[in-house]
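User: I would dearly like some help making sense of a protein record. I have put the entry right below:
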Amino acid sequence: RRIAFARDARVKDLTVVILDRPRHQEIIAEVNAAGARVRTLEEGDVAGAVMAAVPGTGIDAAIGIDGLHATLIAACAVRCLGGELQARLWPRNEEERALIGDLAGRAYGVSDLVPAAEVSVAITGVTGGQLLPGVVFGSGYAESSSLLMSSRQATVRRLVTRHHTVGESS
């Protein structure tokens, strides 16, 4: 409802992307009950945040429970795109607990998570999803698709790279 208010839209006109995982079933039910549309992603923890920050994707918000690394990458990408996100840091294991320390629990925005003014992010589709296709293998090559984002230049570049594998043994 807050997102609808901020966008001057009706809840029923919003589309929320959520990673299709058992841990998100309650969130999916809550979003459906509120009246918004849900679009689930099979893969791509960061992709949902990027799609929500890019105009024209049809995605208004991304909601979910993610790991620390994916959250920080998403925050960097959203900063490059001029968007905003809210995240609570909840460590899932000892490694994350050591990294987070006493920062767990409270809500953080993009500027809290990514205080640097200049940020660059590169995201490459490996398995493929709704944001980027996966690696395509052809005769003597592999092709990857990436997004390169820069907050300094306020740019997003799509890059398709062909990696020639001629002469390599399989």
Summary: The radius of gyration is 18 Å. The chain has two domains: 2-115, 124-164. The CA atoms of residues 53 and 83 lie 5 Å apart. Residues 68-80 form the longest helix (13 residues).
